[in-house]
């Protein structure tokens, strides 16, 4: 076992979603050793080994891990926050226990920006996805409010197959 617990140290209002909270906790052990392995998980959107920071996407919100702190956004209440901290401890321990099968991340990983996504879209502004523009679709893809399958030209035109595969990897 790598980590025993994450102790709730602070609760803040969530500005991104009024009525929800941000829970801040302190792990019982520094996370420096496990962060490079956690950085291999699929929901990681940013990782910086120099500053020992990692951010994961969760539905809804984000989990940000530092060497000595854990932040979880868009939490309903304190009880849910405590449950999420326990689930995070379990995930950290499972990752640590399986580290022999993982390749620790040693380089930075950053989240794609809307322009990164837009560049790979067909850029037809056809509105078939329900958005007014491909840029709006790109933004909503990053927010996970849209899925790639909603872009008809991307799905039906084989000329976009390579772009589609790149986008699938970026927004996974």
Per DSSP E runs of 2 or more residues, the count of β-strands stands at 6
**Largest sheet features:** 6 strands, antiparallel
Q: What's the oligomerization state?
A: single chain
Strand order of the largest sheet: 1-2-6-5-4-3
Structural class designation: alpha+beta
Overall residue-averaged pLDDT value: 91
Identify the CATH architecture of the largest domain: 2-Layer Sandwich
CATH superfamily caption of the largest domain: TATA-Binding Protein
Secondary-structure element string: EEHEEEEHHHHH
Could you give the distance between the termini? Answer: 29 Å
> What is the CATH first-level class name of the largest domain?
Alpha Beta
Portion of residues in beta strands equals 15-25%
Helix content: 25-40%
Radius of gyration: 18 Å
Query: How many domains in all?
Result: 2
Shape: globular
Spell out the key features of this protein.
single chain, 172 residues, alpha+beta, TATA-Binding Protein, 3-methyladenine DNA Glycosylase II, Chain A, domain 3, six-stranded antiparallel beta sheet, 6 helices
Describe the protein.
This protein is of the alpha+beta class and 172 residues long. It contains 6 helices and 6 strands; from the N terminus they run E-E-H-E-E-E-E-H-H-H-H-H. It has helices spanning 35-38, 78-97, 114-120, 134-142, 152-156, 161-171, and strands at 6-13, 21-27, 44-48, 53-57, 62-65, 70-75. Strands 1-2-6-5-4-3 form a 6-stranded antiparallel beta sheet.
Summarize the structure.
This protein has helices at residues 35-38, 78-97, 114-120, 134-142, 152-156, 161-171, and strands at residues 6-13, 21-27, 44-48, 53-57, 62-65, 70-75. The chain is an alpha+beta fold and 172 residues long.
């Amino acid at each position: 076992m790598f980590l025993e617990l994450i102790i709730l140290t602070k609760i803040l209002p969530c500005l991104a979603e009024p009525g929800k909270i941000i829970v801040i906790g302190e792990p019982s052990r520094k996370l420096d050793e496990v962060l490079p392995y956690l950085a291999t998980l699929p929901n990681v959107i940013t990782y910086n080994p120099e500053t020992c920071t990692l951010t994961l996407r969760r539905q809804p919100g984000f989990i940000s891990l530092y060497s000595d702190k854990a932040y979880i956004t868009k939490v309903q209440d304190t009880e849910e926050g405590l449950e999420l901290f326990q689930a995070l401890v379990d995930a950290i321990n499972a990752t640590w226990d399986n580290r022999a099968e993982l390749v620790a991340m040693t380089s930075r990983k950053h989240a794609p920006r809307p322009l990164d996504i837009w560049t790979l879209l067909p850029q037809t502004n056809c509105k078939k996805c329900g958005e007014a523009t491909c840029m709006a679709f790109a933004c909503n893809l990053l927010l996970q409010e849209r899925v790639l399958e909603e872009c008809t030209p991307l799905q039906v035109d084989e000329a976009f197959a390579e772009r589609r595969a790149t986008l699938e990897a970026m927004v996974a």
